[in-house]
Amino acid sequence: MSNGRCIVKQVSVALSVILVGLAITVVACDSKKPTELAAKTGTAATAPMSDEALMSAVGSPGQADNDEGVSQYKQGHMDVATDRFQKAIKSDPKSAEAQYNLGLSFDKMGKHDEATAAFKQAVALAPANPAIKDSPTLKKHLGA
């Protein structure tokens, strides 16, 4: 009987060691996720690593057009994306995201004067938004 208890105890210890090892692995794998998520969402105080088009605030009058523009931008369809961002701006003139996205699209199209104007408007609308103000492309246009 004591031999059976000894085996149960050894199995229990072995399982505990395995679970601790798995927990350490999971924690190590997840350690990068908060910074990656912050960079993607623009919620951190650090600059995003690359310029990504931004989704509109939920409930924005221009949300559907802006978000469709983002989809088109990601696919490389700058003409369609630009049209959608301009529609979003008409629906919601206070949308810093749509202005910023318009600037990104104009930049990709080589329309640098238009990009600069859109970026200036985006910064005026949301001067504290790190995803906008820390954008390398925006800084290139505004000399910041």
Describe the 3D structure.
With 144 residues, the chain is mainly α. The chain has 2 domains: 2-31; 52-142, Serine Threonine Protein Phosphatase 5, Tetratricopeptide repeat (Alpha Horseshoe). It has helices spanning 2-30, 33-41, 63-74, 78-91, 96-108, 112-125, 130-133, 136-142. Helix 5 (96-108) packs antiparallel against helix 6 (112-125). The chain is elongated and about 85 Å long. It starts with a helix and ends with a helix. The model is unreliable at 26-49 (pLDDT under 50).
Question: Which key terms come to mind for this protein?
Answer:
144 residues; mainly alpha; Serine Threonine Protein Phosphatase 5, Tetratricopeptide repeat; 2 domains
Distinct helical segment count: 8
Query: For the residues shown, what is the average pLDDT?
Result: 79
Unreliable spans: 26-49
Strand tally: 0
Counting helices, strands and paired strands, the structural category is mainly alpha
Question: What sequence of helices (H) and strands (E) makes up the elements?
Answer: HHHHHHHH
Largest sheet: none
Estimate what percentage of residues fall within beta strands: under 5%
Overall geometric form: elongated
Query: Number of domains in the coordinates?
Result: 2
Q: What is the CA-based Rg, rounded? A: 24 Å
Q: Please, what is the CATH homologous superfamily of the largest domain?
A: Tetratricopeptide repeat domain
Which fold name is given in CATH as the topology of the largest domain?
A: Serine Threonine Protein Phosphatase 5, Tetratricopeptide repeat
